[in-house]
Structures are given as C-alpha cells and as structure tokens.
Amino acid sequence: MSATPATDGPANDMGLVVVGAAGRMGQTLIRAIHSISGARVIGAVERADSPHLGKDAGELAGIGIINVPISDDPLPVFAKADGVLDFTTPASTVEFAGYAAQARIVHVIGTTGCSTDDNARIAAAARHATIVKSGNMSLGVNLLAVLVEQAARALDADDFDIEILEMHHKHKVDAPSGTALLLGEAAAAGRGIELSGNDVRVRDGHTGVRKTGSIGFATLRGGSVVGDHSVMLAGTGERITLSHHAEDRAIFARGAVKAALWARGKKPGLYSMRDVLGLS
C-alpha cells in the first residue's frame, strides 16, 4: 500500500523529501524540485547534530520560505511523502532505503561509495520500495555509458586498451568516483567480462606490462571541479577519447527529480538511470 500523498499544493504534484538537506547537494536538490513542474518539497531531513535543524529548507536553499522545517526524524516525514532524494553517505542511504521500504515510496539514490553489502541491503529494500540508483544522475553521463559499452564491444581487447580518467573537487571522499565505476561497468559489459578482477585502480612502482583486457582507473582530486570523466580506448597508432564534463551539480539534481517522477507508480524494484531515460 502506497503512502498517502501530501495534500498541500496541487493534488497531483509528487511530494518529495530531501535528505542531507542542508548540504551543498541537498540545497541544489531543493532548488531543482522547486523549478520542475509536477514535484514539490514536502520534507527535509538532516543529521541530529546539524546546526540547521528547524530552519526552513527553502530559505536555506535560497528560494524563499516554503514552510518545510528541517527535521532530524525521517520516519514521520517519509510517512507523508511520495518519494525521497538521497545523495548522502552509504550508511545513511542503507538506513533510508529501509524507511522507504516501510513507507512503500520511491527512493532515488545518488550516493556513491556503497559496498557490496550496502548494495545487497539496498536491493533487499527494493522488494518493497521503488528504488532508482545510479552512480550519476545526468543524462549526458548515462548516454556516455551507452557509447562506452558500444565502443568496448566494437573494439577488440587485443587491439584497444581501456583507461578511465576522472577528476573531482578536493572534498570528495570516495575513489574511484561512482561515475567512473559506472563507466567501468559499461566498458566491462561491452567486453563481456566482470569489472571486478579485471580492474586496475592503482599503479605504483615496477608494475610490469599492462595486462591485456584490463580496465584502468586514474583518479585526480583538487579545487572545485564538479566532475570530469574521460574513457580512453588506446590502440596502436590511434586513440579514441569519450568525455563528459559536469559544470554544475544542478544537472545531477534535475536528473534525480526526473528519476523520481518517472518512478512514481512503478512497481517496487531496483532501477537505473538507463531505465529512466529509456536507454536500457
């Protein structure tokens, strides 16, 4: 049974909760929801020690008062929502997935750095919640992943090596990024192999020659870079580079809202942005 939609505002609007609402991405999500037809902010959640508890989420995000105070208790907020947008931490996301399953609502997950166990628990929650999870919510990156998969399939591993280069701002805590891993999975799928066991994430010292068919990662961190990703297919005498440069984190927020609106009314399950964009 689905949660009862919030009644304030247009009756058909999707009531969304933003968790981590006071952070940079949380505020960006609030602004994105406010700007997109068919969705509205009906809840905002922060950790218990946040100095922003009780503040109006809209005012904090710079869109004016929306009468949504920031709370540290997700349960009553989830109970009146249609969906939740989540770009927090793996531990928090697993917890929120359980709450979304209890409330039978949509859970859009942009959190990166999840472990195998975290992903298993999220998949278990998807038996009751409609979950859209992606290492990157932008249209451009997900189209790039499709192109990477096609290129990897077309170009033989004996002739072309695959290297993934990514750079993010100095505050990012996980590496490789979720987007780099998303692209790595796409390359592996194109080659018909598993990424795990065929990935090379660190090179240091005398490494020996490059293993044929391996997928390499290089990680850069610094400054305020939102996200740069390049997939290089390097052959003898030629090199193909497929790239995406994120200039504003609002692209991820807009993608997350799009995902939530798409997922409304869908059966419980674990979906990806490829599903949302019809690229599966």
From TrEMBL:
- What's the catalysed reaction? (S)-2,3,4,5-tetrahydrodipicolinate + NAD(+) + H2O = (2S,4S)-4-hydroxy-2,3,4,5-tetrahydrodipicolinate + NADH + H(+); (S)-2,3,4,5-tetrahydrodipicolinate + NADP(+) + H2O = (2S,4S)-4-hydroxy-2,3,4,5-tetrahydrodipicolinate + NADPH + H(+)
What is the name listed in the Swiss-Prot or TrEMBL entry for this protein?
4-hydroxy-tetrahydrodipicolinate reductase
Q: Name one GO molecular function term.
A: 4-hydroxy-tetrahydrodipicolinate reductase
Q: Could you tell me the superkingdom of the organism this chain comes from? A: Bacteria
Concerning CDD domains, the annotation shows: DHDPR_N
Described purpose of this protein according to its UniProt entry:
Catalyzes the conversion of 4-hydroxy-tetrahydrodipicolinate (HTPA) to tetrahydrodipicolinate.
Which InterPro entries did the record assign?
A: DapB_C, DapB_N, DapB_N_CS, DHDPR_bac, NAD(P)-bd_dom_sf
What the entry lists under NCBIfam families is as follows: dapB (TIGR00036)
> Does the keyword Flavoprotein belong to this entry?
no
Q: What does the UniProt entry say about where the protein is found?
A: Cytoplasm
What positions does the domain Dihydrodipicolinate reductase N-terminal occupy?
Answer: 15-137
Amino acids binding NADP(+): R47
State one Pfam family annotation.
DapB_N
EC number, UniProt record: 1.17.1.8
Q: What is stated as this protein's family in its record?
A: Belongs to the DapB family.
- Which sites are catalytic? H168, K172
Q: Give the species this sequence originates from.
A: Mesorhizobium ciceri biovar biserrulae (strain HAMBI 2942 / LMG 23838 / WSM1271)
- Pathway annotation from the record: Amino-acid biosynthesis; L-lysine biosynthesis via DAP pathway; (S)-tetrahydrodipicolinate from L-aspartate: step 4/4
Q: Does the keyword NAD apply?
A: yes
Instruction: Give the PANTHER family listed for this entry.
Output: 4-HYDROXY-TETRAHYDRODIPICOLINATE REDUCTASE 1, CHLOROPLASTIC-RELATED, DIHYDRODIPICOLINATE REDUCTASE
Give the GO cellular component terms, alphabetically: cytosol
Please name the PROSITE patterns in this protein's record.
DAPB (PS01298)
Could you tell me the gene encoding this protein?
A: dapB
Residues the entry annotates as binding (S)-2,3,4,5-tetrahydrodipicolinate: H169, G178, T179
Q: How does it assemble?
A: Homotetramer.
Q: Name one GO biological process term.
A: diaminopimelate biosynthetic process
The primary site where this protein sits is cytoplasm
